[in-house]
Amino acid sequence: MKNTTLSLILVLLVSACSHKTDGSATSSSIQFSIAASDVSAAVVLTPAGSTTAAVVDVHFSSSKAAEFRKFTEAHLNQQVQILVGTNVVAEPVIRAAITGGKVQLHFATREEAQAVADSLTKK
C-alpha cells in the first residue's frame, strides 16, 4: 500500500508540474486513454488550502486498473499523455508503477475538473 501511495504521489507531483499542451493529442506521444466505461468513479475534490485548483479522483474498473498498471510498468521514466476522450488532460513522467487502480488528475480550475469528471461518469 505504501508503494502504491508513493507511486501515485510521485506521478501526481510530476503531473502537476508537467508542461500542458493545447489539449490535443499528438500521435508521436505515448498515450493512455480513459473513457467513461473504464471508470467506476470520478469525483472532483478541492485540495486543502486551494481556492481555485481541483482534482479529479478517478477509480478504474478492474480491467482498466490492470491495463494502467501494465502501462505504467512499461513506461517508467517516460513522459506520457493521459487522454480523456481525445483531450490530453495530463502529461506526467511515470516514476513508478501505479498498482492501486486509482489516479488523481489535477486542474487549474474546478470547472475544468468538473467537465472531465462529467465526461468520465457518462455511461
Notes on the protein architecture:
This protein is α+β, with helices and mostly antiparallel strands. It has one domain: Gyrase A, domain 2. It contains three helices and six strands. The protein has helices spanning 2-17, 62-74, 110-120; strands spanning 30-34, 39-45, 54-60, 80-84, 87-90, 102-107. Strand 4 (80-84) and strand 5 (87-90) form a beta hairpin. The protein is globular and about 35 Å long. The protein starts with a helix and ends with a helix. The model is unreliable at 1-22 (pLDDT under 50).
In terms of topology, how is this protein built?
Layout: H1 2-17, E1 30-34, E2 39-45, E3 54-60, H2 62-74, E4 80-84, E5 87-90, E6 102-107, H3 110-120
Tags for this model:
3 helices, 3-stranded mixed beta sheet, 123 residues, disordered N terminus, alpha+beta, Gyrase A, domain 2, 3-stranded antiparallel beta sheet
